[in-house]
Amino acid sequence: MFLGYEPDFFHLITAAGFRLYPLEPVWSDVEKARALALDQGRGVRNPFTLELVRRRVSAERQLIRDTGAVAVIHGTNLTSLISSRAEKVPLFYPVPFALTRPHVSQTRTGLLAVPRRIEPTFMSVFRTLYNFAPLVPRAFTVVARENGVTPLRSMASMFEADHNLLTVMQWELDAYSLPAGYERVGPIYAQLPGDVPDWIHELASSPRPLVYLALGSSASRRLTVSAIHSLGSLPVNVVAPLRHYLTNEDLKELPGNVTVTGLLPAHQLGKFVDAAVLHGGQGTVQTACATGIPFVGMGLQPEQRWNVSVCERLGNAISIRPRQIGAPLFGRAVRRTLEDPAMRDAADRVKRAYAGENGAAAVAAVVERVVASRK
To answer: What's CA 299's distance to the chain center, in Å?
Structure first.
């Protein structure tokens, strides 16, 4: 059973045959924009008001009781950190390794957008702030106390459940030791229903390479427009499931070699797409890895930069900064993903490794194990 607040993607849940409980209060568009800006480090205005956190925790606790739920799995629904613990139900968190407590405590470089030579110093400061500074919005501390739960104080406490299930490949953990409460389950990425549209078949049969442009939910209209027009200047065809970012005027000014669409079953595009340009979110990166598509990644925040850097070390990705979109370096990076046989070989190796993984089934196995042990 699913609970949710913002209805943007409810239809995908109900279409898959699951029962959905839409809860309140729902954020306004302004509050959603503030939450996204806070997540990306672009803003400081906090949408987690005392009233919102209090009402959401109350609604979640009631739903847990009404349904008799014996486990809660959350995808960074922060109020679950309070509601599940108040109801004494184990909380599971399928989560990228980047920015977890063991990752921050043991990482020296590759996470922050600063020159590599000074990053260890910045990481030391970041580590202290992350683990100890009382940066959690006051509402979470107040409502935790009201519900008899240990108050959340540090950022680390906001990204740690009872059972933290790392949705990564083993190679991302080889240099790290994991504390109790952490275990690897493997990649989890969207596998949307439906068939690949006929027009993608037609684009793929063109002499021009086909490039997939995906910027997830954490991009902006400005970045989207810049990426589309930069790719539009190259001798490639582009498919971009980014309709939600663009205005009608933007659509009128699209380059002739760019096709903008809604969501696509991206996990089926491997045999059609030659390269990708991605924002670095774990879902899009893992989809590219699982389908053997080399890509250019431009992480918009620390976790995304880490996802891209991991693949760059494997050889199937090139990392750039978002501000380099439109610069000659961007065009060279895209051409290399299309022309460099070493990148294609690396992408094929990664694809073969992904074929043996099933993160969703591994999560289910962990939940069943924990619930059985409690019984």
So the answer is: 11
